[in-house]
Structure formats: structure tokens, C-alpha cells
Specification:
One of its GO terms (molecular function) is cysteine-type deubiquitinase activity. The chain is an alpha+beta fold. It is built from 26 helices and 55 strands. Among the domains are: 54 residues, no CATH class; 107 residues, no CATH class; 119 residues, Phosphatidylinositol 3-kinase Catalytic Subunit, Chain A, domain 1 (Ubiquitin-like (UB roll)); 92 residues, Ubiquitin-like (UB roll) (Roll), CATH 3.10.20; 81 residues, Roll (Ubiquitin-like (UB roll)); 109 residues, Ubiquitin-like (UB roll) (Roll); 116 residues. 24% of the residues lie in helices and 25% in strands.
């Protein structure tokens, strides 16, 4: 029956309606997808953890590692009670450390084997490493991780039965032999290894790299001689070689792809062709005592990218047949790839050029010579060439510079790109296409030589590609392609052939269950149940189809294409009608059959589309289909979820036009004829026209309505245009349609609901018509159909529908809803909202606004009635979010209220202290990730502050200044001292205290206003020996503050405002009370003068401040400075000084510089040297030393402090140099070892934290 298609919660036989407080568009989070056809699980990338994912997948598919790891019990891992606890307590009461890394590895492996989801998360594992979130977004090296992880696992297994797991699986040993040619004695040194890094450069394959390590003998001669202990530690010629003395079950071979280019000083990635076999016999590289030497490849880690960044993924062989392997299609051949590369050349031939006299056009022969030279250079190298290096080599091999022909060829890179059939460019590298084709053809040839028997044998060798979350099936051919691609092999993992399970046994799911600890099986089984429930709920939600079923007697047909409610009275949906949910997967024929069981076998069901006006347009009749498997999501109902039921004997009139192509468009019509105002009362300014109507047909209809007759001759003079009357500044106010466009339909002209068309004759279509005709358009009345839900009464939730004019007030619609729902409710205590999932759904509608002002979306004319105070014309609804209340605080206020009054009202509602100003308001907007700017225009209204109806505010801690005001922190200088006390020529240290009061000033205030406020606060009085016009602010000196110390003096107090000085809120300033008034203009200098050195201590004895006025003299000249210093010294010393020497002190380097303008190297007159410029750079508080006499040197000004200062600086420089040298040496060593990790900052260093389990 039909009830099976509706909500399962329905108890009676009627259709169930949605609860009033439930949205039909509620969002359910999509659960993680189940595994794909491979039945294997990937790993989620946390940001840049692809290297970790590739390694973890390799370890999982290594039975020699996985099975012993699973054999560890909860007791072995110190999981005595709860496996999720990080620490447990033993029976003796002592706390046992949980072996977190092993526990998380077990959990992750178990989830990857048993959890039915596409990809698992490795977050818990990286958390057990002690990694922070930023460490998962750093690009790291998989080889480095392999070593760190094995070391961490080894330490974590100490004291367990698997303490030797890493050694037993991965550890082997080599013997290094050195034979002295002098005494013929052989020296041996045994070294253990967990991996054997192989050099890729100059090695075509794996066999060559191994031979270079274990078969070739190195001659130790010359500067590389061997110091033989048997020859009295003398340097002797010797031979050196190595052999493998022990092979592990799992052989790890990292390939050193990254090299250091001595010429360029850069690290490069070697992507030359490098082959590796799937089976290898290592007997020739081993000692005779090694018996098992046959290995098979089972994992390859691929690196894509450069040596500084890239991506890792892995090819892994499913030894135990855990997954489901389906033979994938073969990789594309090089022939197909080459055909894609053969693009038409963009090179301009001479025939396509139009050279001028000044054009340096080249002939085809000259271009061919350039190409041949570049090809010769590229063929000399079997690897990629950087474009910069290629251009450099090209210049070295030709006498014609490239810039000479640049006008005709463009840049060097552009020239290469213009020949895509010859050159292949990858980022900043270039290679010949024929070189790549040779590599690929060779690989294709090798692949074609695989016997059919080998192909059949691959059926038992299941290879998969693990690329983070994605798992796909591959064959050996896919792996062989990486012999010569830029996505090249980076690590190879081989395993002993005879190390398989007995009888080549494979591992099925049941065996997996037995190997996984029982507590993990139970935990993952519960997770799978939860996942299945979530997927079922999500799938059901995704397949829900909300359909509104209407009775046919509600409607009347208008214009043969629209169905409008035939009553202006509000109507509740009768039983079995209204909004219902169906399952999209329901078969159409079954659905129709159930509908007929409810509404009658002779009933007809029509699918309708809701128009912008709320009216309906018939799309099609819902009929039985020939294919019984067609479901609801395959017919028109999925896009137009409205059904009109015509019960027998009522039928749909044959005159009603059906079909989406006949959908009516609501257009505003503006008549621009001269006498349009006369006929305004009878003209329809809103038209519903089928969208397949041509523009000419519409013009005929409008012409006939206006003139009441047909006249083809006058009709030819009539034209139409699209109008945009609401566009600002009346720009592009009309677009006249051409005669050819009149043959197109309204849909072809891209006309939509609400567009405005104008019609007039050619002689009257002038700009002056717009004002009058637009007023006519605005007076057009139109019917709207509204559906209103009852969100007040939770029992009677049936919606109602009504038809009204677009000019109907919302208050009237609300009264109709209250009456239809039978609510005994004061209209002032409820309000209407738009019923959709947009941001407007939370904003109540005003009672005084009309229906046409509602911003409906997607032809949705649904409203809902909720409780709440109705909004008057001047009201605003403000919602406030605060940590003091769990729910939003809703306030209805007048928009003329000031922000201060609103803030006080909020404090009152939230029981906050009225004098608590350590908070402020911010507006929350959905378009912003963070809160908007603080609201601080306290004396202005809410509208001036930009608040509108429905605004959401949040309370944030911290006080703010009013608009166009700033607050300043003021400190008082109470003391200054020197270290040491004798070094008065150095920068003093200040003791400052902060004033408790903060100064709030307009940003247009000057610094004089700040000085005045400070003087008033400290109640400063002008000394009696000054004139009455002297102001207290003149005794206040202001300093900028940096690092809690006063620095520079604030100049130009009158002309500079706080805004011009770019002073920000809560900036800090310090002030000092002077014994005399001070006037500092913008260019004045305030210098510290020291003089008279003590012969005993060699320090300066006296110091004074010297104001060097530069108002009229823009240049700080030496004579001017010397004159001022001499004048002050004479008044202080009371004797005549004939000649002095001046020196400038540089405190940052402890040096003095004699001020001698005659020694300047610039071609400037001595009298015009500006001491404010290099090399003296005089600024405020610059220390000038003064000594009596001539021809003095800087050593005469030095003090003991200066010598100590310079020594400290030299020590610091040397330490920095040594650190740089050490870092450079470490980087060179890493580059030579092929390490791919960039070590430019300490935070990039990879680490794994492990607890101590030795005890």
C-alpha cells in the first residue's frame, strides 16, 4: 500500500505530515564511503603524510612483520583493563606505561584489514609519535621515516616477546674488506644494516648499483691511501671491497635519487631510466656462507615531484590475497601517447609573416640550425636539462646572442614551447621527445616480450596501487612504466622467496580474524555496525523525495497554462493531501498503483512545476511505463515534486497546455506609446507568457491588447526591448531587439521571471518614457499562491495554502493563517518567516511589508508561522550570542536607538555590571569566517552602525575605543641609569611606570592635546620664573616606546595629528617632565654631548643635551654644529676654547668616528655636507664626543667599555660564522647522502617520541 512509501513513523492510515519544527532540507553528514571493488582500505592524508601512508601500507602487507605484531597480547602492551587508557596500574600498584606506538599500529592494521570504509585515519598513530598538527603538513622523506619508525618500534618492544622483531625481519650485515698491498694483510669490519641505500646516478639498473657496491674493488692510492696498523701505521696503497654476509627476510633498498650539483649549487632529482627486476638472485654479491639468496619484489614506493616537495604512493603485492584483484586494462602505449603529443606547431613561417624594415625575421633554414644545435646539446645528456642551463650552454656554442633574434622568436622558453613535437617541457626542465619515446619504446618492447604464460602467472601475483585513500588494481606492466618516468621508484622492498607460508597458503578474511586480537575484532565490529547504520540513514535521507499533493478542486485554469487557487480564502490541506516523503528508488508503476488505491482507480495524477507566483504549471501526466524498473528519480517528479490529483469524474481540460517547454514566464510589460497613460487602466502590465513563444508572437499580442485591432503596417513600426529599470545611474537601461531576434523564442533570448520588456513605436522610444512607464509597471497586480506551515502548534501541523495579490500585507496573510489553523493567539505575538534553508529563514517579516517584497528563492513561496513579538515598522530584531546564556538573546528594539542604549539593554538582560566596559559587540555574518569589525559608533543609531533586521551580535572580551577615537597607554619615566655608571656616552636604561588611567583621544587630535592631558592629570604647575603665557604642556617630552624602553622623541606636536602619525589603538608612549620648556620642530635634532675625559678611568666626565634647531637651516652643517657646541661649552666651563675635535659614537658596534667633512669621498663642498646623512647619520640622542685639540683620532675617544663591547661583538660574529659553517657542512653531507628532506629550519626536523621501556 501507499503507506509503505511514506514515513515509517506513521501509525494510522493517513499520510503523515512533516513535524512543524523539522526542515525538509536538513543536512546529514555523509559517512565515509565503504571499500571499493578491491576490498582494501586506503589511508587518509592529514595534509602531507603521503610518505607515512605508503610506508604503513607496505608494513601491513608484510606478513613477517604484521603477524608477530598481532601476536602481542593486551598484557604484553600493558593494557590491563581498558585498551583506550594511556597508562594502566599493575596489581602491585605501580603505573605501567602503555606501549602507545605498538597499540596504535595494531589498531590501525586491524582497521585497515577489517573496517569497511574506503580509508582509515592515521591521526591516532601520529599522536602516539608526539606529532603536533603542524608536523603533518611538512614534506618529509620516506626513507628517513623508515629508519625513525623502525627505531621507535624497536624501543617500544623492549621487554616483550617480540623485542627482536625489527632485527629478525629487516637486519642484515656486510663485511668491509681492506687489503694492504704492502703486507698483503686483509682487515675486516662487520657492519649491520636495516636498509642498503643504492646510488642511481650513472647506474642503468639495480644489478649495476649492487655490483658497484659489492663486486668492484676500490683502489686506495695517492691522497686516499690506507693507514695500515701492520705496517707501523704508515700510509699504504690498498684494495677495498665489500660483501653481504647476512641477508634479512625483508630487504629494503632505498634509491638515492637526490644529488648535489656542484656547478649550480642546487640539489637535483635524478629521473634517468633505472630498471629493477621482479626476481633477483643476490648470490654474486654475498659471502659463500649465505645460502638463501633468491628474492622477489613485493613493494615499490614511488616519488613524484622534485627534491624539495612531491608526493609518495606505493605499488604493493598482495602476498596473502587479502584483497580482490581484477585485471586492469593495460597502460597506454607510447604510440598512443606520441599521437597525443603531435600537436600543430605554432612556429610562424615566412609565409605568415609581414616583415617590415626593422623586423629581424629569420628564415626557416636559420630556425632549423637553432633547433639542431639545441637537439645536439640535449642529446649529450641522458637526463632532463634545466632551461637556464640549456640557454647558458647554447650561448657558449654560438656567436649569435639570443637577444638579437628575440623579436622574431620571442624568449628562449617560448621558442621551445613553439616546437612541442621536438621538445617536451616539464615546469623549468626540457627534454627531447625522441629521448622519451626511446625510453617508452624500449619499455613497450620489453612488455611485449612477456609470454602468455607469464601473463597467466600474474593472475596469482596481485599488485595494487595505494595512493592515500585510493586503492586500484595494477599489473607488472604498470610498475615497469616507472623505469623511465619522472614518477620514479624511490624505495624497493624484496622478500625471500622461500619465506612464504607453507604450500603457498593465502590469507582469507577468516584467517585475518584469527590473527587480529579479539578485543580489536570486537571493537571494529561495533564500528562497522555504526558505519552501516549511518550509511543506511544517509542513503535513506539522500533518496527522500518531498512531494506536495494537491486536490484538483482547489485550482482554476488561467491562460490555459497556469493553475491558480480558485479561492482567496485560506485553506488547510485535507487528509491524504499535503507534503509527504517518498523513496526515490520506488518503482513508478508501483507508486501509481498505490496512489490509485488511495485516491481511486479512475483518478489521474499530474506532475506540476511551481512558478515564481506560487501557481502551478502542468508538466506531464504520471502514467504507467513500459519498463517496470523505472523508479521515481527517473521521471519528471524528481525535478518537479508537485502532484495534482483529479478524482473521477473531474478531469483536466484538454485546452490546458502541458510540458516544460510551455512553462510560462512572468514578464513586466512597459508600454512606451505616447498615449499609454490613457489606456493604463485596462492594460496588463504583468504577463505570463509561454517560454516557447516567439518575440514576434508576443509583440502581436501586446499590440492587439493596446490598439484593440490588427494593423500589419503599424505593427512593422513597433519594436521591443529588454529594460533594466532598477540598474544604478540608468546605465544600459534598454536593449533593443533586432528584427532577426524576433524569430527567437523567449527561452532562446534568455528571458526569465521578473524581466521587464518595453514596447513602443520607433519614433517614441526615447529616454523620457522611463519614469512614467516604470510607474505603470510597478502598479501591476498579480496573484500569488502561498503555502504556510504551522510551527506553533506541535499537534496540528498541517500546512495551509492561500491565494492573494502581490500587494497583500504580511499582516493580513498572518491573520488568515491564524484563522485557518484555529489558533486563539494575539496577532502581535506571532510572526511569519520564509520557510527555506537560506540565511533569510531566521529573519522575521514585517507586518507592514507586502508579499511582493519577500525575497523568495527558487520559486519557493513557502512561509511558516512562529511565536514571537510581531515587528512594527521601526522595529529591528537583534539576536545576541553570549557565553552567559546558552541560547540566543532576542531583542526587539527601535532602529533609532543608539548603540550605547542597546549595549546597556544587553547588560541589563544578561545581568552584567553596567560599569563593566571590558567587553564589546561584534556582528556575526555568514559571509565572514571570523566576526566583523567591532561596533564602536556609540552615539549613533543602530542603522548608522549598519545593523539591519535579524542582525546577530556576539559579545567579545576587551574594551574598544569609540569610533574615530584611540586609547593610549602612558608611562612615566622615573629614573635613568647607565651600565656601567661611568659609561655616560652609552644609551641609558629607563625605569618607567604605567599610569592607571588610559587616555582616550580623537584621532584628529595633535600630540599637544596628549601633552595637555598628561600635564592636567599630574597637576603640573609652571614654575614662577616663567612668563604667564608659558603652558604646562611645554614641559612634557614624549617618547615612542619599543621593547619596553623609550626610544625616539615625538616631534612636531602642533601640525601632526594622531591619525597622520598612524597611531593605533592602545599604542604606548612615555613622558618625561623637563625643568624647562621645550619646542621641537620636525627637523630639529636633540643631541647628547659628552666632554672632558678622566685621565684615570678614561671615561667622559660630563654630559649635556644640545638642541640643534634646523627650522631655517635644513642642512645639519658641521660649522653650525661646532658653533652651538662651543657656545654651550664656554658657558659651562667659563673659559675660552680655541679648537675642538668632534666624534660620533655608534653604540651598536662600540666605535667612534671623527666628524671631519673634509674627509668625505663625495664630490660635495665641505660647507654643504649634511651630517644627518651617511656616514654620520645624526639622529635624536646621537652621542657626540668633544675633546679639546686638533688632529685627534678615534682612539683618543675610546673608553674601556668600547673595547669590551667590540670584543663581545667579535665573539658573537665568530659564533654565528661557526654555526653557519656547521649548518653548511651538515647540508652538504645530507645532499651527498641523497637525503631529500629540506633542513632549513628546526621545525622541519622529523621526530618520533618513545617512552623508556628498558626497565
Amino acid at each position: 500500500m501507499l503507506q509503505d512509501l511514506f514515513d515509517e513513523d506513521r501509525e494510522d492510515g493517513d499520510f503523515s505530515y512533516f513535524p512543524s519544527n523539522t526542515s525538509s532540507k536538513s543536512i546529514i553528514e555523509k559517512p565515509i564511503s565503504p571499500r571499493n571493488e578491491t576490498d582494501l582500505c586506503g589511508l587518509q592524508n592529514q595534509g602531507a603524510t603521503c610518505y607515512l601512508n605508503a610506508l604503513i601500507q607496505t608494513l601491513l602487507f608484510t606478513p613477517d612483520f604484521r603477524e608477530p605484531l598481532f601476536s602481542l597480547t593486551a598484557k604484553d602492551l600493558n593494557l590491563l583493563s581498558n585498551p583506550n587508557d594511556s597508562s594502566q596500574t599493575s596489581s602491585s600498584g605501580s603505573t605501567l606505561k602503555v606501549r602507545k606506538i605498538i597499540v596504535e599500529l595494531q589498531k590501525l592494521f586491524a582497521e585497515m584489514l577489517l573496517l569497511n570504509q574506503q580509508a582509515c585515519s592515521s591521526i591516532r598513530l601520529t599522536d602516539s609519535f608526539g606529532w603536533q598538527s603542524n608536523e603533518t603538513i611538512d614534506h618529509q622523506d620516506v626513507h628517513e621515516l623508515n629508519r625513525l619508525l623502525f627505531d621507535a618500534i624497536q624501543k617500544s618492544l623492549q621487554g616483550t616477546k617480540q623485542s627482536n622483531l625489527i632485527r629478525s625481519c629487516y637486519e642484515g650485515s656486510t663485511i668491509n674488506y681492506t687489503q694492504c698491498k704492502q703486507c698483503q694483510k686483509i682487515f675486516k669490519r662487520i657492519e649491520d644494516y636495516q636498509d642498503l641505500p643504492l646510488v642511481v646516478q650513472d647506474s642503468p639498473n639495480l644489478h649495476t648499483s649492487l655490483a658497484n657496491m659489492f663486486t668492484y674493488r676500490e683502489q686506495l692510492t695517492g691522497d686516499n691511501q690506507y693507514r695500515c696498523s701492520s705496517c707501523d701505521n704508515r700510509l699504504c696503497d690498498a684494495d677495498k671491497w665489500a660483501k653481504i654476509s647476512k641477508l634479512p627476510p625483508i630487504l629494503t633498498l632505498p634509491l638515492q635519487r637526490f644529488i648535489y650539483d656542484i656547478k649550480t649549487g642546487n640539489r637535483l632529482k635524478k629521473t634517468t631510466r633505472y630498471e629493477f627486476p621482479f626476481d633477483i638472485d643476490l648470490k654474486e654479491f654475498c659471502e659463500d656462507s649465505v645460502i638463501d639468496t633468491n628474492y622477489e619484489l613485493f613493494a615499490v614506493v614511488i616519488h613524484k615531484g622534485t627534491c624539495y616537495s612531491g608526493h609518495y604512493y606505493g605499488y604493493i603485492k598482495d602476498i596473502d590475497h587479502i584483497g580482490t584483484w581484477i585485471r586492469p586494462p593495460p597502460p597506454p602505449s607510447s604510440a598512443a601517447k606520441s599521437s597525443n603529443k603531435q600537436k600543430p606547431s605554432n612556429t610562424n613561417s615566412n609565409n605568415n609573416r609581414n616583415p617590415t624594415k626593422n623586423d629581424s625575421t629569420e628564415t626557416d633554414e636559420e630556425i632549423s640550425k637553432k633547433i639542431e644545435l639545441i637537439k645536439t646539446i640535449l642529446l649529450s645528456c641522458d637526463d632532463w636539462f634545466t632551461i637556464d642551463d640549456l640557454l647558458k650552454t647554447y650561448r657558449e656554442n654560438t656567436t649569435v646572442p639570443w637577444s638579437r633574434t628575440r623579436n622574431s622568436n620571442g624568449t628562449f622558453t617560448k621558442f621551445l614551447r613553439n616546437h612541442p613535437d621536438i621538445f617536451h617541457i616539464d615546469d623549468k626542465r626540457v627534454r627531447l621527445i625522441e629521448q622519451m619515446d626511446i625510453d617508452e619504446n624500449q619499455m613497450d618492447y620489453e612488455s611485449s616480450q612477456i609470454d602468455k604464460t607469464d601473463i597467466n602467472s600474474q593472475e596469482n601475483e596481485h599488485w595494487f596501487c595505494f595512493d592515500d585513500s585510493n586503492v586500484t588494481c595494477v599489473t607488472q606492466q604498470h610498475i615497469q612504466r616507472h623505469y623511465g618516468l619522472s614518477d620514479c621508484a624511490y624505495m624497493l622492498f624484496y622478500r625471500l622467496k622461500n619465506n612464504r607460508n607453507k604450500n603457498e597458503s593465502t590469507m582469507d578474511c577468516s584467517n585475518t580474524l584469527y590473527s587480529v586480537p579479539q578485543w580489536l575484532i570486537e571493537e571494529i565490529s561495533e564500528k562497522n555496525k555504526i558505519l552501516e547504520e549511518k550509511r543506511e540513514i544517509y542513503e535513506k535521507h539522500q533518496n527522500q523525495l518531498s512531494v506536495i499533493i494537491y486536490p484538483s478542486e482547489w485550482f482554476e485554469v488561467i491562460d490555459n497554462c497556469r493553475l491558480n487557487l480558485n479561492s482567496n480564502n485560506q485553506v488547510l490541506f485535507p487528509d491524504q493531501y499535503g507534503e509527504h516523503k517518498f523513496d526515490k528508488r520506488t518503482k513508478t508503476n508501483e507508486f501509481i498503483s498505490n496512489l490509485k488505491d488511495i485516491y481511486g482507480k479512475d483518478s489521474h495524477f499530474y506532475i506540476a512545476k511551481k512558478l515564481r507566483s506560487g501557481q502551478l504549471h502542468i508538466i506531464s501526466e504520471l502514467k504507467n511505463v513500459s519498463d517496470d524498473n523505472i523508479t521515481l528519480d527517473k521521471n519528471d517528479l524528481s525535478n518537479n515534486p508537485n502532484i495534482i490529483v483529479f478524482k473521477y469524474p473531474s478531469i483536466l481540460p484538454d485546452t490546458v497546455i502541458q510540458g516544460e517547454e510551455f512553462e510560462p514566464i512572468m514578464l513586466n510589460i512597459v508600454y512606451g506609446f505616447p498615449d499609454a497613460h490613457i489606456h493604463a487602466s485596462r492594460l496588463q502590465t504583468i504577463r505570463h507568457v509561454s517560454k516557447n513563444t516567439t518575440l514576434f508572437e508576443l509583440k502581436e499580442i501586446l499590440f492587439r491588447d493596446f490598439y484593440q485591432y490588427d494593423d500589419p503596417q503599424i505593427l512593422r513600426q513597433v519594436r521591443m526591448g529588454k529594460l533594466n529599470l532598477e540598474e544604478k545611474n540608468n546605465r544600459k537601461s534598454r536593449r533593443e531587439y533586432k528584427i532577426d531576434e524576433e524569430k527567437q523564442t523567449l527561452a532562446q533570448l534568455y528571458l526569465h521571471d521578473g524581466d521587464t520588456l518595453g514596447i513602443d513605436n520607433k519614433n517614441s522610444f526615447v529616454p523620457s518614457w522611463k519614469d512614467a512607464s516604470s510607474n505603470i509597471a510597478n502598479t501591476g497586480k498579480n496573484h500569488l499562491s502561498l503555502t504556510i506551515k504551522n510551527n506553533i502548534d506541535t499537534i496540528n501541523t498541517k500546512p495551509m495554502t492561500c491565494s492573494c495579490w502581490n500587494t497583500t500585507l504580511i499582516g493580513e496573510v498572518k491573520l488568515m493563517a491564524i484563522q485557518a489553523f484555529g489558533l486563539s493567539l494575539d496577532p502581535s505575538m506571532c510572526r511569519l518567516y520564509i520557510d527555506d534553508d537560506s540565511d533569510l529563514a531566521d529573519i522575521p517579516l514585517y507586518d507592514h511589508q507586502t508579499v511582493d517584497t519577500i525575497n523568495f528563492r527558487e520559486n519557493n513561496t513557502n512561509l511558516c508561522l512562529k511565536s514571537g513579538q510581531a515587528l512594527k515598522e521601526n522595529d529591528l530584531m537583534i539576536c545576541v550570542q553570549s557565553d552567559r546564556e546558552p541560547n540566543l538573546l532576542e531583542l526587539i528594539v527601535d532602529y533609532s536607538m543608539t548603540l550605547t542604549d542597546l549595549w546597556n539593554l544587553i547588560k541589563q538582560k544578561l545581568n552584567m555590571d553596567e560599569n563593566d566596559n571590558e567587553y564589546h559587540l561584534c556582528e556575526m555574518k555568514s559571509t565572514l569566517i571570523n566576526d566583523g569589525s567591532p561596533l564602536n559608533d556609540f552615539d549613533q543609531t543602530l542603522l548608522v552602525n549598519g545593523l539591519t533586521n535579524g542582525a546577530q551580535l556576539t559579545i567579545r572580551s576587551g574594551s574598544i575605543a569609540p569610533r574615530n577615537h584611540i586609547r593610549l597607554k602612558i608611562f612615566k619615566i622615573i629614573n635613568q641609569y647607565y651600565k656601567p655608571n661611568e659609561a655616560i656616552h652609552t644609551r641609558p636604561k629607563f625605569e618607567i611606570i604605567e599610569l592607571t588611567q588610559r587616555f582616550e583621544l580623537p584621532i584628529t587630535s595633535s600630540f599637544n592635546a596628549l601633552r595637555e592631558r598628561i600635564a592636567k592629570l599630574i597637576d603640573f604647575k609652571v614654575p614662577s620664573n616663567y612668563t604667564s603665557d608659558t603652558q604646562p604642556l611645554e614641559f612634557i617630552r614624549l617618547y615612542d616606546i619599543d621593547d619596553n624602553q623609550p626610544t625616539t622623541i615625538v616631534h612636531e606636536p602642533v601640525l601632526t595629528t594622531l591619525k597622520q602619525a598612524k597611531v593605533r589603538d592602545l599604542c604606548s608612549y612615555a613622558f618625561e617632565i623637563l625643568p624647562h620648556p621645550e619646542y621641537l620642530s620636525k627637523k630639529d635634532l636633540l643631541l647628547n654631548i659628552v666632554y672632558l675625559k678622566d685621565n684615570t678611568t678614561n671615561y667622559f666626565q660630563y654630559k649635556f643635551e644640545l638642541l640643534l634647531p634646523l627650522r631655517d637651516n635644513a642642512i645639519a652643517k658641521y660649522d653650525y654644529l661646532e658653533q652651538h657646541i662651543l657656545s654651550h661649552l664656554k658657558s659651562l666651563l667659563n673659559n675660552d676654547i680655541i679648537k675642538i675635535t668632534l666624534a660620533r659614537y655608534f653604540s651598536d658596534r662600540g666605535q667612534w668616528m671623527i666628524i671631519d667633512p673634509s674627509a668625505t669621498t663625495k664630490k660635495t663642498k665641505i660647507t654643504n655636507v649634511n651630517l644627518k646623512h651617511e656616514p654620520y647619520k645624526l639622529t635624536d640622542f646621537t652621542v657626540i664626543g668633544v675633546l679639546e685639540g686638533e688632529n685627534l683620532t678615534s682612539e683618543d675617544f675610546e673608553t674601556e667599555f668600547d673595547q669590551i663591547k667590540r670584543k663581545d661583538i667579535d665573539v658573537e660574529k665568530e659564533q654565528k660564522r661557526m654555526n653557519r659553517e656547521k649548518n653548511r657542512t651538515d647540508n652538504d653531507r645530507n645532499q651527498q647522502n641523497g637525503s631529500s628532506g629540506r633542513r632549513r629550519s628546526p621545525q622541519n626536523t622529523m621526530r618520533i617520541n618513545v617512552d623508556d621501556f628498558d626497565n
